[in-house]
Specification:
Length: 334
C-alpha cells in the first residue's frame, strides 16, 4: 500500500530538505527545526596549484551527501524528532536484496530516501549528461511495470517512476522509522543541535575555515577545459556547494523567525539572529554572483578578488552569530 507523502517544495530547500520535510509531515512532526545545521561550513579539499576548480573544489553546509557521512548528518532526526534513520550502503548489499528491502520498507509504512546521481535519474534535466548528487523518496512500487514509484518534491509535482534496473546505481538509501513520541522541542534542544553541528565542523569558536576558503578563492583559475565541460556553470559541483551554503543560511534564518513567535522570552534575540542570517545569506549570494561573472566574462581574477574579500566579511559576521547562539545556550532559560 502506497505511503501518502505531501508533495511540496520550499524555495531554498535542497532535495534532501524537501525529502525530510515530507517525512516529518508524514509523522506529524514540526519540520521548522530541520535547519539546525544551516550555519555549518565544510570545505574540502584544499586545491593544489593547477588543479581544476569546478569539479573538485567543494563546500558543504547541512549535508555533504557523501556515503559515509550520511548517518552522522541525519542523526539529529532521532535526537530532535524521535525518528530513526537506518542507512544502507549499496556496496554492502546485492541488487535483489536492495530491491526487496525497499519494497518491504514500503509495505511496513516506512518511507525510503534514495540517493542517486542525477546522471541516472530519468526525470532529471541532467539525465545522462551531468553527475550531481540527488535524492528523492520512494513511497510505492509496481512489479507489473518493474519500477519504484517516487516522490521528488524538488523536481516533480506528480509521482515519478524509477525502473528497478536503476536501483543498482544508487549510492545509499535511508529508511525512516518513527520511534516513541518525543516530548516538545525546547529552546535548549534546538540551540544544542546548532552548537554540536558547529563543533563538528570546527566552526563554533571561529570561522577560520571560511577565511581559508577565501584564500583559495582569491587565487583560483578556471581552465578552458573546464569551461568546455561546464558551459552551464549551474551543472558544476563547485557552484552547487556554494548554493548549499546560501540556502542553509536562509533556511536557518527562517527557523529563527519561527522561533521568535514560539518563544517570546527570547523574541528580540531570535529576530536579530533571523535578520543577521538573512543578510549573510544575501552576502553568500553575492559571492556566487561574482564567481558567475568571473566565469562568463573571462575576468575570473578580478571577480575572485571581490568574492574573496566578501568572504572575509562573511567570516566575521558568522562568528558574531555563532557567539550569540552560544551565549544564549549558556543563559538560564530552562
Amino acid at each position: 500500500m502506497a505511503i501518502k507523502l505531501n508533495v511540496n517544495h520550499k524555495k531554498g530547500n535542497l532535495c534532501i530538505d524537501d525529502n525530510i520535510t515530507a517525512v516529518l509531515q508524514y509523522y506529524g512532526k514540526n519540520y521548522e527545526y530541520l535547519y539546525t545545521n544551516g550555519l555549518n561550513f565544510k570545505y574540502s579539499p584544499k586545491l593544489e596549484q593547477g588543479e581544476h576548480v569546478l569539479g573538485r573544489m567543494r563546500t558543504f553546509c547541512m549535508y555533504s551527501l557523501g556515503k559515509q557521512e550520511t548517518l552522522e548528518e541525519l542523526s539529529y532526526l532521532q535526537e530532535l524528532f524521535g525518528i530513526e534513520t537506518k542507512i544502507i550502503y549499496n556496496e554492502n548489499i546485492t541488487k535483489p536484496a536492495l530491491k526487496n528491502l525497499i519494497k518491504n520498507s514500503i509495505d511496513n509504512n516506512n518511507p525510503v530516501c534514495l540517493f542517486l546521481d542525477t546522471y541516472y535519474v530519468p526525470w532529471h534535466n541532467y539525465f545522462e549528461q551531468f553527475h550531481m548528487p540527488h535524492s528523492f523518496l520512494v513511497n510505492d512500487y509496481n512489479d507489473n511495470s518493474n519500477c519504484l514509484i517516487c516522490t521528488d518534491n524538488y523536481l516533480c509535482e506528480d509521482h515519478a517512476m524509477l525502473p528497478y534496473e536503476k536501483i543498482s546505481f544508487c549510492t545509499n538509501i535511508v529508511i525512516f522509522n518513527k520511534l516513541e513520541s518525543k516530548s516538545c522541542i525546547s529552546i535548549k534542544d534546538v540551540l544544542l543541535q546548532i552548537i554540536n553541528g558547529l563543533e563538528c565542523c570546527n566552526k563554533l569558536k571561529n570561522s577560520d575555515s571560511i577565511r581559508e576558503f577565501s584564500d583559495d578563492v582569491r587565487s583560483i583559475s578556471i581552465y578552458n577545459k573546464e569551461k568546455e565541460m561546464y558551459q552551464d556553470l549551474n551543472s558544476s559541483q563547485f557552484l552547487f556547494g556554494l548554493k548549499c551554503i546560501e540556502y542553509g543560511r536562509k533556511n536557518i534564518s527562517d527557523m529563527f523567525s519561527y522561533m521568535s513567535k514560539e518563544f517570546l522570552l527570547l523574541e528580540d534575540k531570535f529576530i536579530w539572529l533571523s535578520q543577521r542570517l538573512n543578510f549573510i545569506s544575501e552576502q553568500w549570494h553575492l559571492v556566487i554572483v561574482f564567481i558567475i561573472k568571473g566565469f562568463y566574462s573571462n575576468k575570473i581574477s578580478f571577480y575572485a578578488e571581490k568574492a574573496a574579500n566578501l568572504l572575509i566579511e562573511i567570516a566575521e559576521n558568522e562568528e558574531k552569530v555563532s557567539h550569540t547562539i552560544l551565549s544564549m545556550y549558556e543563559m538560564d532559560i530552562s
